[in-house]
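Complex record, two chains
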Amino acid sequence: MTILEKVTALLGEGAVLEAGTDRVPRVAPGSPDAIALLLGTAHQEGWRVRIEGAGTWLQSDAPADLALTTRRLDRIPAIEPSDLTATAEAGIGLDQLRQQLADRGAWLAIDPPGLAGRTLGSVVSTATAGPLRHGFGPIKDHLLGVTFVTGDGRMVQSGGRVMKNVAGYDLTRLQAGGFGAFGVIVLVHLRLRTLPRADVTYVLEGAREDLTQVGEDIAAAGLTPAALELVSPALARRERWVLAVRLAGSPALVAADEAGLGAASGGGRFAPLRAEEAHAFWMRLAEGFAVRPVTFRIGGVPTASDELLDLLQHQLGDEWISASPAAGAIRWTGDASVDRLQRLRRTLAGLEVPLTLERAPWALRGAVGHFGAYREGVGPLVAGLRRTFDPGGALVVATEGT
Amino acid sequence: MTSALGRDLASIVGERHVRSARAERVTYAMDGLPTHRRLPDLVVLPGTREELIAVVRLLAALDVPFVPRGAGTGLSGGALADVGSVLLVLTRLNRILRIDRDNRLAVVEPGVVNAKLGAAAKPHGLQYAPDPSSQSACTIGGNVAENAGGPHCLKYGVTANHILALEVLLADGSLVEIGSPAGESWGPDLVGVFVGSEGNFGIATRVTVRLTPIPRAVRTLLADFSAIRTAGEAVSAIIAAGIVPAALEMMDQSCIRAVEDSVYAAGYPRDAAAVLLVEIDGRNADAVLAETEVVTELLGKSGARSVRSAASEAERERLWQGRKKAFGAMGRLSRDLVVQDAVVPRSALPQVLETIATIAQRYGLVVSNVFHAGDGNLHPNISFDATDPALKQRVEAASAEIMETCIAAGGTITGEHGVGIDKLRYMPLIFDAESLGAMHAVRKVFDPEERVNPGKVVPLHACREWASANAGASPRGQPRAVA
């Protein structure tokens, strides 16, 4: 029997999708149990499996015997507006999830890069936070628990669905940003907020150095923006660099911050965006990172932001870049070779700044790795965790590179 | 345990920092929970990071298990050492190594007291937000091990949200650095995995914490209610309005009276069935005032008999002292106190509190509730006399029923105190054998021989077997029976 025939016998014809251009059989199990069954079989058979969501973020090109997509895991078993929690399957598109939450007056305060239909599982497993990280923290801060299936088909629960939980080790945080190396996330318990009663965006155009100063002034003035993002002209589709400030929360809080914004703008004038303009601005920014072949993020302390932006400009160019300096996060997208990325990563390592490769063609990410080389002593721990959660090496993930 | 080991340890840390006499060791036989008692064979107090490393390497060479301990304020028996184990007390590693105002971070040793870090950050206009009730004594290393919370974690997050990087000493004596000063990890988020691992993965020898700006405006409200249920409903109303108070704490009548009868009397109305302590803070006074007005109105609509706003910083501190010292005040009620810890969905609070009252009545016990209502994090406290075996048994049985009630409501068995040994028995109620097996396997990646804090967190008898990547010797501290 071929792999496809075995998978069909295992999960039924309905689970088998049309193969992609690389002709790797693609299967979409309809339940967490079906994923466990499939990965258990893959482990026994020695198949190598690549994990996909909606196929809109990470390139679907890893060499594998089978592509497993979570797209049929698209249910939302629970939304609890009074508790501000929700439980959603990993294959749900963020656009659908957002809409259903909004209908109940709830909000998941994340705005990851990528297209609107990007799956929740993709966002969690790659820990790709967007500009809202400034006000609401990284992806992991929005997670109450996850259920995942290991590379040998075991189903594991971590965390729970309440606001605080220290029962057992925190395997949720291992999965958030693990790039699927430790299993396939199938179910996510989320921490929500109420839909902000006020939500406005202001933009200021100018030279990068001037806007950086304005950003620092805003922080010093005690304003509490939901997002404070420095965006390159190409990405913002503007003539000059843009400092975008999003204020979201209670009307009183937003009104107070709006009043303070003018004073902190260094003589420049912030322009308010109409609601539809703001929506389009942030969506364009998110989508911009899913278009070019390579996207990565780096994390440096706020006072290093300028130096890091200069470094990126010097080594790779700064046409497509977005930074949240106060949150210590910079995201770059464009085209880059293996050599240049490896050189950049070495330079950054010398500055104590990690580079996480978020998306790239397999030829590149297989060589460079999402994480690259680990610090001394960390490699054996990560390798041990990988062997624990994927003892047969069924899951194809380029963690370290070659 | 041999006296030779004591001599070897003394050669590293100095004789006076090795405690071997029974009278000295008894000091360390308990933590903040009076229901568990273990007498360590030896107690060692290293004074520097280098001494600590040398001690752990010696213990590794001799295959001796050890238990790291901070100030011993934990409430799960997590820092108790069994016979055959060495207790490593880290309170002498208490230096604040660096405060970086511009990048809002600090680097500290594990024995730094939580409140002292706060005091050191204050002149920089910064604070260390997690504020467990024991913050005047508990240490940052202990906070990391337990993923400690506190009243102000509703808005600012728990310890895990404030740890950027760690230097970790593993059981074999090797050092690893995880995390980075900006919070982005080098590879998988091992900091996130380490925080809350209750000492099972090693010892945090250096901790880089996130500091946050001190709010410029603070308003503190005290609302009193004639029924616990309405107080619980007020909590939901505030959260549903989209306002995230800095803290939203509840105390029931038993707790109120204990506080008011103590030196920590805060002026809580003695006849109230419950009070809510609500704090709104922010960096803009106008916004804080506006949100306070909304909250005041919601409290009134929800049935508060009165809402009082602290008129001065002194009054605010008095209101908070009553809350933070409530556990101490309850010491007046009886010889011993079990501080329980569980979390339920916020909307389940009224129902769960009523059920707890019923359980208390049925077992003839005094249960006082003081807790983080905004998070749904309950602390039912049972006053009793541990010298009465029958009473102790009733306390155990009532505690188990309270936990089962919280789990049935969709909650969990601990929100901030940890599992330790006290809650091992409840772990199979919330995790299946596979998930417990996964946790055990992860522990063995960090500590293959299970020498750090053996016998805690994961009940081995309930684990399904996992072929651990770093399988070592037989597990210590608990009987092994593979499910």
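Note: Chain B has 16 helices and 20 strands.
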